[in-house]
Amino acid sequence: MEPFPPITPGTRDLPVAAPRRRLFWRLLLLMLLLVAVLFAVLMWRWSTPPQPFDPLVNATTRASGDAVVVGTITTATLARIGELLLDKNGGYVSNDVLPPSIFLDDMPNWEFGVIEQSRDLAQALRRDFSRSLTQSIEDEDLAEAQPLFSTSNDRWLLPSTESQYRAAIAHVDAYRVRLSDGDLNDAQFYARADNLATYLSMVESRLGSLSQRLSAAAGAIRQDTDLANDPSARQSKPASTPREVRTPWREIDDTFYEARGSCFALVHFLKAIEFDFAEVLKDKNATVTLRQIIAELEATQEPLGSPIILNGSPYGFFANHSLVMANYIARADAS
């Protein structure tokens, strides 16, 4: 009888090594799957915009017993919109550099739309609403707040965008508090027709740009009407006419969500203005017009029935969400 072959070290471990390796890869795959599911849930949750609020209730709550004077509601609304931008689900994500926020595409554009409208109102507060004349001294808190709101929206560090925006909100709140302190030589808010007209002109320009960009999603042929109705007008270089204007397909959802965020903020600002400029609007018989503008903008906030932004042809089988949004914005702009 021949002797058994010698057993070398590790021979008995060979049949066990393969199952262990398979178990390791299965566990690793399971962990990656769980992380992917967690990221998907967080991304869905963080892509949900905050709920709207009542500007009057917000101003009364922030006043904490102080008088709600002219300008309080508009100022408090700007501060609250800034807080929603920073403290919503997932916080402020436009400057995030780590997952899952870095994978988000729609919410950063929504945030940009909100901050653009906030910058416009902060500028109007600093230049017009808080000053009686063009040669009057601007308010010190608003002079600090407006450039802070203009900080780049994607700064991650030194200083971060969030820290700059929070400082701006603090200055806006300080101005609001001084509006109600009873000091006749302190902060003021002037609800005048010319001030309101200047701000609404900024709103009109912003909405017009958004409407044109949204309409370009389906492509459009445009004539050069830049100098129309002004025979003596000139421009730096001639424009090609006619020309096709079309939004790149990768930017269609970006423009849509930017417009959606812009309208979210603007609805609240105009509702606040309806309170603070009530007498001016009544005198100009413009209250109903402002309410119609608000109604058109509120229609842009209806929930989407599709998980993606569709870009169908205008008379095609599929919807074109950009054209629907452009329609509401154009009607608000025309009002």
What does this structure look like?
The protein has 335 residues and is mainly α. It has one domain (51-222, 244-334). 57% of the residues lie in helices and 2% in strands. It contains eleven helices and two strands; from the N terminus they run H-H-H-H-H-H-H-E-E-H-H-H-H. Strands 1-2 form a two-stranded antiparallel ribbon. The longest helix is centred in the first third of the chain and has 33 residues, at 14-46. The termini are far apart. The mean pLDDT is 89.
Overall helicity:
55-70%
What summary fits the major beta sheet? Answer: 2 strands, antiparallel
The sequence of SSEs as H and E is HHHHHHHEEHHHH
| Side-by-side strand order of the widest sheet | 1-2
Number of helices: 11
- Residue-averaged pLDDT, rounded? 89
- Give Rg in angstroms: 27 Å
SS content category:
mainly alpha
Count of individual domains? 1
N-end to C-end Cα span: 106 Å
Q: Quick one: overall form?
A: globular
Beta-strand percentage range: under 5%
Number of strands: 2
Low-pLDDT sequence parts:
none
Could you outline the blueprint of secondary structure elements for this entry?
Layout: H1 14-46, H2 55-63, H3 72-87, H4 106-129, H5 140-149, H6 161-179, H7 193-215, E1 220-222, E2 243-245, H8 252-276, H9 278-283, H10 287-299, H11 321-334
Helix pairs in contact: 2-3, 3-4, 3-6, 3-8, 4-5, 4-7, 4-8, 5-6, 7-8, 7-11, 8-10, 8-11, 10-11
Précis, in short:
By secondary structure, this protein is mainly α. It has helices spanning about 15-45, 55-65, 70-85, 105-130, 140-150, 160-180, 195-215, 250-275, 280-285, 285-300, 320-335, and strands at about 220, 245.
